[in-house]
Specification:
The chain has helices at about 5-15, 50-60, 80-85, 125-135, 150-155, 175-195, 220-230, 245-255, 315-330, 330-340, 340-355, 370-380, 385-390, 410-415, 420-435, 455-465, 480-490, and strands at about 60-65, 70-80, 90, 95, 105, 110, 110-115, 120-125, 145, 165, 170-175, 205-210, 240, 260, 275-280, 285-295, 300-310, 365-370, 400-405, 405-410, 445-450, 470-475, 495. By secondary structure, the protein is an alpha+beta fold. The strands form six sheets. Strands 14-22-21-15-16-17-23 form a seven-stranded mixed beta sheet, with helices on both faces. Strands 1, 2, 3, 6, 12 and 13 form a six-stranded mixed beta sheet that branches. A hairpin with a 5-residue loop joins strand 7 (about 110-115) and strand 8. Helix 8 (about 245-255) packs across helix 17, helix 9 (about 315-330) packs across helix 10 (about 330-340) and helix 10 packs across helix 12. The radius of gyration is 24 Å and the shape is globular.
Length: about 500
C-alpha cells in the first residue's frame, strides 16, 4: 500500500507543542517526513516543520513546567546551563504550607477564591484558609470558591471560551478565567521566587511547558493553550506535552537508587526493543493508564488507548466519610460540613496526613482527632452520647474503634480497609487490560502520581502482579512535573500513539 499523509493527525501533533497549524502554510512543507507512515500504522512524531520556533524555545534561559492537577498543582524549573551539566537539577517550590495541621507539600491544592465581583483573590492553601476565615464571620456567601475543577475539562467533549463552572455553592464563573487564574498565579509565584533569589529572569526568558492527559481531545488542549495565553504566556514560548510522556522521560533519566520496586536492579526503560510497559498515574481525583512498547529506534509506541477510572485517592476519603456517617448520620455530617468549615478543613487535612503515613506493616492503632463541633452537633441533634454509640455499633465491636475525649482510635486494619475498594477496582482493570492478546506480555508497571507514593498502594500492586516488575520513583508525585521540564529542554518525543480511529 502506498504511504498516506494524514493532514489532520499531522496538525494535531503539531498543536500539542504549541504550533498554530491554521495560521501558516509553512506547516505542510515537510509532508515527505510523514510518508513513512502507512494507513493503520502508528505515527505520532514531532516533525521539524518549524525549526525556528522550536529553536527559539530551546534558546530560553530557563524551562519551567506547570502541572495543573485536578487535586494539586505546582511548578518546577531548571536553567539551560544546569540542564547541560545535570539534567536532573530541577527545582520546585520548596514547600506549600497549610495554615492548619502543619500539612506541607510540594504542590498546592487546586483551589481558587474570587471576590463577589469575580476578581481573583488567591490560590491553593491560602484560598482554603481565607475562605474558612470568611465563613467564620459569615462573609463567604457572596464569594466564589472553586476546588478540583480541572475535572471539568475531562468531563466535556468540546469546550468553548464561554463555558461556565459552578463553585461550592452553585454560583458560576467563566471556565477560561479560572484556568488562567491558576496558571497566572503559578507563573507569577515562580517569577517572584526567582527575583527574591536575585535571578534576573523575565517571563520572556522562559520556555513554559504544560503537561496534559493523554486522553484529552484537541479541543481540551486548545482550551488549555488559550488559558495560558490569557495568563500571559505567549504561544511562541509554550509547549504542551502528554503526562505519560513526561513521566516516562523522567524515569528514563533517574538512577535505580531513586526507584522503589520489585525488584529494581537497573534503570527504568533500560530493557530491549519489543519490551512492553504500563504507566499508571494515580492522582487524587483521576487515574490514567497508558501502555507502550519500546521500538528499535528508541521511541515507545502506544499499544492501547489511554484509560481512566474511579480508582483515585478521593475514594479513600469517601470511604472514611461513609465510616463517619455510619456513626453520626448523613444529615448531621452535612450540617457539620456546612456550619463548621474551618473544622471540616482541619479534619480533611488530618486525614491526608494519615493516608500518607500508613504503611502495610503498621500494627499500632491509627488516631484521628474528631472535631468537637462534629461531636457537639451529633449529640445536640440526637440526644445520644457518641462514645456510647460507637461502643454499641456491631461493625466496630471488639474495640476495633474507640472514642476518648476528642480522639477517634481505630485498629490499623480498619483504616487500611479504606483503601480496599479503589485497590480492588484498579487491580481488576489492570487484569482486564493484560488479558488482551497484545498486552498479555506487559513486563513492567510504572506507578506515578501522588497516590503512588502511598506504601499501601505500592504493596497492593506488587502483590497483585508478582510476575511483573512494579517500580515507583521516590518522588512519584513529581514525576510528571519534572519530566515536563526535561521535555521542554529536549523538545522532542519518545512516545508514539495511535491516530484517532485505529483502535
Amino acid at each position: 500500500m502506498s504511504p498516506v499523509f494524514n493532514l489532520n493527525l499531522y496538525r494535531h501533533r503539531l498543536s500539542t507543542i504549541g504550533i498554530d497549524t491554521h495560521q501558516s502554510a509553512s506547516y505542510v512543507v515537510s509532508i515527505s517526513l510523514v510518508t513513512e507512515c502507512k494507513m493503520g500504522a502508528t505515527c505520532r512524531r514531532i516533525l521539524s516543520t518549524d525549526s525556528k520556533k522550536m529553536a527559539d524555545k530551546k534558546d530560553k534561559l530557563l524551562t519551567a513546567a506547570i502541572d495543573f492537577g485536578t487535586t494539586y498543582s505546582g511548578y518546577a524549573f531548571s536553567f539551560e546551563y544546569d540542564y547541560k551539566v545535570d539534567p536532573l537539577k530541577i527545582s520546585t517550590n520548596p514547600l506549600w504550607v497549610a495554615g492548619s495541621r502543619g500539612l506541607v507539600s510540594l504542590k498546592a491544592p487546586t483551589c481558587v477564591l474570587l471576590s463577589p465581583k469575580q476578581e481573583f483573590i488567591t490560590f491553593g492553601y491560602e484560598a482554603e484558609d481565607l475562605y474558612v476565615e470568611l465563613a467564620l464571620d459569615e462573609n463567604h456567601y457572596d464569594h466564589y470558591f472553586f476546588k478540583g475543577f480541572k475535572i471539568f475539562i475531562d468531563e466535556k467533549g468540546q469546550l468553548s471560551k464561554s463555558m461556565l463552572i459552578r463553585d461550592d455553592k452553585g454560583k458560576e464563573a467563566p471556565a477560561l478565567d479560572l484556568f488562567a487564574h491558576v496558571i497566572r498565579y503559578l507563573k507569577n509565584h515562580l517569577l517572584s521566587a526567582l527575583d527574591a533569589k536575585g535571578a534576573t529572569i523575565k517571563n520572556k526568558d522562559i520556555h513554559w511547558v504544560l503537561p496534559v492527559p493523554a486522553l484529552w481531545t484537541g479541543s481540551a488542549k486548545q482550551f488549555m493553550r488559550e488559558a495560558a495565553n490569557k495568563a500571559g504566556i505567549l504561544t511562541e514560548q509554550l509547549t504542551l506535552c502528554l503526562e505519560p510522556e513526561a513521566a516516562a522521560l523522567y524515569c528514563q533519566h533517574i538512577p535505580s537508587t531513586k526507584l522503589i520496586g520489585s525488584p529494581v536492579t537497573r534503570p527504568f526503560l533500560s530493557f530491549s526493543a519489543g519490551a512492553k510497559f504500563m504507566i499508571i498515574d494515580l492522582g487524587g481525583k483521576t487515574v490514567d493508564i497508558s501502555i507502550y512498547q519500546k521500538q528499535s529506534n528508541g521511541t515507545y509506541k502506544e499499544l492501547h488507548r489511554p484509560t481512566r477510572g474511579p480508582w483515585r485517592g478521593t475514594e479513600v476519603d469517601g470511604a472514611f466519610h461513609q465510616m463517619i456517617i455510619k456513626i453520626v448520620g448523613a444529615s448531621c455530617f452535612q450540617k457539620f460540613k456546612d456550619d463548621f468549615k474551618a473544622d471540616d478543613l482541619d479534619f480533611h487535612r488530618e486525614l491526608e496526613t494519615k493516608k500518607r503515613n500508613i504503611k502495610p506493616e503498621s500494627n499500632s492503632k491509627t488516631t484521628i482527632k474528631l472535631p468537637i463541633s462534629l461531636v457537639t452537633t451529633f449529640e445536640e441533634e440526637t440526644g445520644e452520647n457518641i462514645r456510647e454509640v460507637i461502643q454499641q455499633m456491631q461493625l466496630y465491636n471488639a474495640n476495633k474503634m474507640t472514642f476518648h475525649t476528642d480522639k477517634l482510635r481505630m485498629e490499623t486494619d480498619l483504616f487500611k480497609e479504606l483503601f480496599r475498594e479503589p485497590i480492588n477496582m484498579l487491580v481488576e482493570h489492570i487484569q482486564q487490560l493484560t488479558t488482551e492478546d497484545n498486552l498479555s506480555d506487559v513486563s513492567t508497571i510504572l506507578m506515578v502520581g501522588g497516590l503512588s507514593e502511598s506504601c499501601i498502594m505500592q504493596d497492593a500492586i506488587m502483590k497483585a502482579f508478582p510476575a511483573k516488575r512494579v517500580i515507583v520513583p521516590v518522588d512519584a508525585g513529581l514525576a510528571v512535573l519534572k519530566g515536563a521540564v526535561l521535555f521542554g529542554h529536549q523538545s522532542n518525543t519518545i512516545l508514539e500513539s495511535n491516530p484517532p480511529g485505529l483502535l
